[in-house]
Write a structure and sequence with these properties.
There is one protein chain. By secondary structure, the chain is α/β, with parallel strands linked by helices. Helices cover about 35% and strands about 20% of the residues. The chain is built from 22 helices and 25 strands. The radius of gyration is 32 Å and the shape is elongated.
């Protein structure tokens, strides 16, 4: 799927036209009864009729869309980030001079194709239309001497390199062409333009008119194309006049209300640390949808009065929520923004960006999400004229040159061009996409077998990650067609291959410690190796036997204050030996521990304490670092052993405590970045599953595992239990975020040989100090 060869789907354009007629009536531009067309309304505010094109100025202001790209070009001159291109296979007797003549006529017909950009009065940018005739040539690269099997690869490389050459915006034309000859009667046509003078729709206009001219000239006729009623410069003038007249204010107020409180950033889990500045390097992964799936999606949409775009957007939002954990975020979508009939045949940069806000809180059904997306889309179409950069300017989000403002993810639904040369067979010639303007863009080509492509930033994501994510999107599509009443958090994501992998991992024939509790497994280690070090913290250490005895005493005390299965005990002590004693004791008593990171804001800690409703709190008696709590909650200092030192040191009886594998072992709270934090209950049976019967890492008595994540993260379980349940050693890091140098010190001093790291942490360490992993 090339980056510039498509036109917007017809049914969506019809939606926009109908909505525009309503908008014109609201703005007072429509005659009574709605009889005034867009063209008639435009004539009321613009004098650029066909007769007026003879004597025209050469300087025009930039449209809002152009202005944004002009500034980006000044910021990173000589870049190919905003090149767009169209490539076609041409089979037949190609008349190259006639094709050049046709392209020449296109340049003369559309002023924007002979426009450059200069600095005018008051140091403001202006678009300048070059009046003299510009010669346009189609150089030919002949590959017929190359080996037949190598020609396509060579042609693809040549076309891709041609599309990657930068333009100088000060020099017209911002259009160039190239022909690659692969056989006697086969050529590849590559046209490259700068985005500042065209958009996706424009490429369709360009190819359709180019083919009409070529066919007409072949018959000895003159141009069959009707005179243009206006040029792109007139559109830019009109847009600026609308802004000066305050015509967009009502739409501005709508968008400000629509986006109020929406998080500015959608954080997808990335393979690499985000760079300080976007490079716009990109890649693409794509696949086709089966015909029956596409039919099912269309039927699902029709049942809710929704277009295919709306259905795909709803599923895309679910995918992004499942990957990011965010339930409130914005997804951008491009809209053709050609509201007037006399702009339909123009080449130029008209396209605008709408922000589709997703609000998926409360675990709605997919059908409910689809209805929400439909309403959001229709309302957005009603307010589509406001230039996106003016919205950004008004909302003034925190500026960050490492990501796009307001939306970092896009979705566009397009339709392949249907225009054909009469005398030459014309078809798509795909070329590699090496740029990405956003973190992630989903491009959908609407045809009998819809092609879906993920265009992504290679600075953030690996190709394998995007291939897997695309597979998960297709699985979601299948799931919503099968059962749109499923709730979004329950919709299946895994592909059949991934399910098979899980099945294989789950059937290794090894001891999975099924039917065992965490406390039983720990106690077996303590009995087998009582003198081996279980936990280290700075210069302190606890052997398995000592840890087990102290935890047994504290567990009995916890039982005396009401700790039972399904009750919770909050742990609010600094990372250290007492923290581990407390965790083990809570499980032995039958309760579930709720870890509290004392570096968290007081408001978050108070919420967790109120929401989890613990019967006891393990903390210092002065509650240092913790908010005041309900006086009915027992406060126990695990460091004051005299409180429970006289209690028996033997293991508690399982029949007495009532603990079984289904009992909750821990409650971990989400970050709350998209709303209130939510507590996730982890049962005993879940913990041995990633420690026993696995083959991706070895856990045994030789394991020395560093516990360095926040105690309130689920990663803490990955860093503590694999050591304590297999007889290894857990090394507790000092209470702070560790640098690569600090991790290296733990590796060298404490003999750490096992680390859990996020992809971002791993890449940061590799880039800063890879020796620490040696």
């Amino acid at each position: 799927m090339s980056s510039g060869r498509v036109v917007l789907k017809k049914d969506r354009l019809e939606e926009e036209r109908e909505l525009l007629r309503r908008l014109l009536e609201k703005e007072g531009l429509g005659a009574p009864g709605g009889q005034t067309t867009h063209g008639e309304a435009q004539d009321q505010v613009s004098s650029s009729s066909a007769e007026g094109l003879a004597a025209r100025p050469s300087l025009f202001p930039l449209s809002c869309q152009q202005e944004q790209l002009w500034f980006l070009d000044r910021f990173q001159p000589g870049s190919d980030f905003y090149n767009v291109f169209v490539t076609r296979n041409l089979k037949g007797d190609l008349d190259i001079p006639r094709l050049e003549r046709s392209l020449q006529e296109m340049v003369q017909r559309h002023e924007i194709l002979r426009t450059c950009f200069v600095i005018g009065e008051n140091e403001e940018p202006r678009q300048k239309v070059v009046g003299e005739r510009l010669e346009v040539r189609l150089p030919v690269v002949d590959l017929r001497e190359s080996e037949t099997e190598e020609r396509e690869e060579q042609a693809r490389k040549i076309v891709t390199e041609e599309g990657s050459k930068a333009f100088d915006l000060r020099r017209a034309p911002l259009l160039r062409g190239l022909l690659v000859r692969t056989e006697e009667r086969e050529h590849i046509l590559a046209l490259t333009l700068h985005h500042i003078i065209c958009d996706e729709w424009s490429l369709g206009v360009l190819m359709e008119e180019l083919e009409k001219l070529y066919d007409a000239y072949g018959r000895g006729e003159e141009s069959p194309l009707p005179e243009l009623e206006m040029q792109y410069g007139d559109y830019a003038l009109e847009q600026r006049e609308w802004i000066r007249a305050g015509k967009f204010q009502q739409q501005m107020e709508y968008w400000k209300g629509q986006l109020a409180g929406m998080p500015q950033v959608l954080e997808l889990p990335a393979d690499h640390v985000r760079s300080a500045q976007q490079s716009f390097r990109g890649g693409i992964q794509q696949r086709a949808l089966a015909g029956d799936l596409l039919e099912g999606l269309n039927a699902l949409g029709r049942g809710e009065g929704a277009s295919l775009f709306m259905t795909l957007m709803a599923v895309f939002q679910v995918l992004l929520m499942r990957y990011s954990g965010q339930e409130d975020f914005g997804v951008g979508t491009s809209i053709v923004n050609r509201n007037r009939t006399n702009t339909h045949g123009l080449i130029g940069f008209f396209v605008n960006t709408l922000v589709m806000r997703a609000n998926l809180g409360g675990n709605p059904t997919f059908r409910e999400v689809l209805r929400q997306v439909r309403q959001t889309a229709l309302s957005g179409y009603d307010h589509q004229d406001l230039p996106f950069d003016k919205l950004v300017e008004e909302l003034a989000p925190d500026r960050d040159i490492s990501r796009n403002p307001l939306v970092q993810v896009m979705l566009s639904v397009n339709r392949p061009m249907d225009a054909q040369f009469r005398s030459i067979e014309s078809s798509e010639f795909g070329s590699d996409i090496r740029t990405s303007k956003f973190d992630l863009s989903m491009l959908v080509e609407d045809s009998r077998q819809a092609k879906i492509a993920f265009n992504y930033s290679t600075d953030l994501f690996e190709a394998e990650t995007m291939e897997r994510m695309l597979g998960h999107y297709v699985e979601l599509l299948k799931a919503v067609v099968e059962n749109p009443e499923q709730r979004v958090w329950e919709l299946p994501l895994l592909t059949s291959h991934e399910k098979e992998q899980l099945e294989n991992w789950s059937q290794t024939g090894k001891d999975f410690a099924l039917g065992r509790t965490v406390t039983e497994l720990f106690e077996e280690c303590a009995a087998r190796m009582p003198n081996a070090v279980a936990v280290e913290y700075e210069e302190q250490a606890l052997a398995y036997g000592d840890l087990n005895r102290r935890a047994n005493q504290l567990a009995r005390y916890l039982r005396s204050v009401g700790v039972r299965p399904d009750t919770r005990v909050a742990i609010g002590v600094e990372r250290g030996l007492e923290m581990v004693v407390g965790i083990v004791a809570v499980l032995k008593a039958g309760g579930a521990y709720v870890p509290l990171d004392l570096s968290y804001p007081e408001q978050r800690l108070r919420f967790i304490l109120q929401d989890s409703a613990p019967v006891a709190l393990l903390a210092r008696s002065d509650l240092q670092g913790l908010p005041t709590i309900d006086e009915r909650v027992q406060i126990i200092d695990p460091g004051n052993e005299f409180v429970f030192e006289d209690l028996p040191e033997t293991n508690l009886d399982r029949a007495e405590t009532g603990v079984d594998p289904e009992c909750v072992a821990s409650v971990i709270y989400t970050s709350g970045s998209t709303g209130e934090p939510k507590g996730s209950e982890i049962p005993h049976r879940s913990i041995p599953g990633f420690i026993f019967g696995i083959d991706y890492v070895r856990f045994d008595e030789e394991t020395v595992l560093l516990q360095h994540s926040s105690v309130s993260w689920d990663a803490m379980m990955l860093e503590l239990w694999p050591a304590l349940l297999r007889g290894g050693r857990s090394v507790l890091a000092y209470q702070r975020v560790l640098s690569a140098e600090e991790i290296r010190k733990y590796v060298q001093k404490a003999g750490v040989n096992t680390l859990w790291l996020t992809a971002a942490q791993f890449n940061a360490i590799v880039e800063s100090d890879v020796r620490c992993l040696a």
